[in-house]
Write a structure and sequence with these properties.
Elements: H1 2-20, E1 41-47, H2 53-69, E2 72-78, H3 81-93, E3 98-102, H4 107-116, E4 122-126, E5 135-140, H5 142-156, E6 163-168, H6 173-187, E7 194-199, H7 206-218, E8 223-227, H8 232-242, E9 245-250, E10 261-267, H9 269-283, E11 292-294, E12 301-303, H10 320-335
Parallel strand pairs: 1-2, 1-3, 3-4, 4-5, 5-11, 6-7, 6-8, 8-9, 9-10
Antiparallel strand pairs: 10-12
């Protein structure tokens, strides 16, 4: 009995946390639509947003879809690994209809809860794959956009500048896709290039990202790819101070205030979450869970000034002829003439 009371209290406190500490619903207090029917509840379980554009875009996508489609959106930002399972389990208690894991860090919790409660909700996962057969997984071919950024890096540096850097969150398959595509893109124009990568170990550490970027600059890197989530701001600050070129990630982070950010690798999580919720709302009980992988061909991966336009002026370091060359490479990737779908093993890559 005591255990049940403690568990109930924990669930209640957790649900209160959703409201008080970053978890938000649109049209709070409204649980019925205009026809008196109970609204569907759709939840996004993800990392703390902070300045992570990857997460912020998903949150915006969910809220905008809710305004259009009339469901109740719930955003749950998790501060650590343990809280993912706790929060996802609480959503089951709350009888949420559709639970979306936003990012690979939510994968373990989504996999476990979907296996334990296969009929309690529908499940999806963005940016990773899990074993549970009732979870629809959307993954990306980030290496395709990274290839274009690599070409841009080669184009914006001088002929004798052959060292390139990258500041990432961590190692692993996710980072490897970015690093592999970036290196291949650089080497398509500068085959004798060398590379240095560092890892912040955090999604929100601009200070460490800046420190690594400056170290890479001192090692000769004159283009440093920023892939440190919220830490990218530190790389951009270093670029302004040291006058090296860089690129953002996920959304257009080019800025007239920083001419050294010459492009951004696009990974459209806004469109991804809108696709998922609209598909769920359309299909209802007929919801299908076939996994999907998206890249340049599907329009969710790309690079600013190549596959995606920008309101900001293009860097003078990229000529019309070079942009045309980049667009040609993008078309070859889309058609399969330039095949980046199969990743080599990192240990044997040269």
């Amino acid at each position: 009995m005591k255990k049940k009371f403690v568990l109930l209290l924990a669930v209640v406190m957790l649900l209160l946390t959703f409201t008080a500490c970053g978890s938000k619903t649109a049209n709070e207090g409204a649980s019925e639509n205009t026809e008196g029917e109970a609204k569907k509840k759709i939840a996004l379980v993800t990392d703390q947003a902070g300045t992570q554009v990857f997460v912020l875009a998903m949150i915006d996508g969910l809220k905008d879809a809710a305004e259009e489609l009339g469901f109740e959106p719930i955003v749950v930002e998790c501060p650590d690994a343990a809280s993912f399972e706790e929060n996802t389990r609480a959503l089951i208690e709350e009888k949420v209809d559709f639970i979306i894991g936003g990012g690979w860090t939510s994968g373990e919790a989504i996999n476990k809860i979907a296996t334990e409660f296969p009929d309690a909700a529908k499940y999806a996962l963005i940016d990773s794959e899990v074993e549970a057969e009732n979870v629809k997984c959307i993954s990306f071919r980030e290496q395709e956009g990274a290839y274009l950024i690599g070409m841009i890096a080669a184009m914006t540096t001088e002929d004798n500048e052959n060292t390139f850097g990258g500041v990432h969150v961590n190692e692993g398959i996710g980072s490897w896709k970015w690093r592999y595509g970036f290196m291949e893109g650089v080497k398509s124009l500068k085959p004798d290039s060398s590379f240095v990568f560092n890892y912040t170990g955090s999604f929100n550490d601009p200070a460490k990202a800046k420190e690594f970027a400056i170290q890479q600059y001192e090692q000769g890197a004159r283009f440093i790819n920023a892939a440190a989530a919220g830490g990218d701001k530190g790389v951009f600050e270093a670029a302004l101070e040291k006058n090296f070129y860089t690129s953002g990630q996920d959304v257009d982070l080019t800025s007239p205030d920083n001419p050294y950010i010459v492009s951004s690798q696009i990974k459209d999580t806004y469109a991804t979450i809108q696709y998922l919720v609209k598909q769920y709302m359309d299909q209802g009980d007929a919801w299908t869970v076939d996994n999907e992988e998206w890249g340049l061909e599907e329009g969710t991966i790309g690079a600013v000034y190549v596959t995606h336009e920008s309101e900001n002026p293009r860097s003078e370091k990229l000529s019309d002829e070079e942009v045309a060359q980049l667009k040609e490479a993008a078309e070859k990737i889309k058609s399969g003439d330039l095949d980046l779908k199969t990743l080599p093993d990192e240990e044997t890559y040269k």
